Amino acid sequence: MNIVAIASLLLGLGLGLMILLFIFRIILTWYPQIDLARFPFSWVAWPTEPLLAPTRKLVPPIGGVDITPVLWVGIFSLLRELLLGQQGLLTLALK
To answer: pTM for the full model?
Structure first.
């Protein structure tokens, strides 16, 4: 296994995990009474909040709804497709 294959595997796992965490974060916004500082919710808030906080300053809530987690799901999905999809940069480098 070469370095590109290992990087591709690790990047795929990392991007997939971040997408999953942001989807969990979207679901948690439906329940405002949940304290994100408490376990197990802190495991979702800890890795996502550093990306969400600056984005909230740029993108205000629309109709009182915070759409920044949805934006990050789109960004990470796009990155994953560009790098690891069928015609992705790392996928083509492995051929």
So the answer is: 0.85
d(CA 20, CA 60): 23
State how far the Cα of 49 lies from the Cα of 38, in Å rounded to an integer. Answer: 14
Helix (H, G, I), strand (E, B) or coil at 16: helix
Nearest-angstrom CA–CA distance, 25 and 14: 16
Per residue in 4-37, pLDDT (tens digit) is 788 888 989 999 999 999 999 999 888 888 888 8
Distance from C-alpha of 55 to C-alpha of 89, rounded to nearest angstrom: 27
Alpha carbons 66 and 53: distance in angstroms, whole number: 11
Neighbours of 29 (CB within 10 A): 15
Q: What is the residue extent of each domain of the chain?
A: 3-94
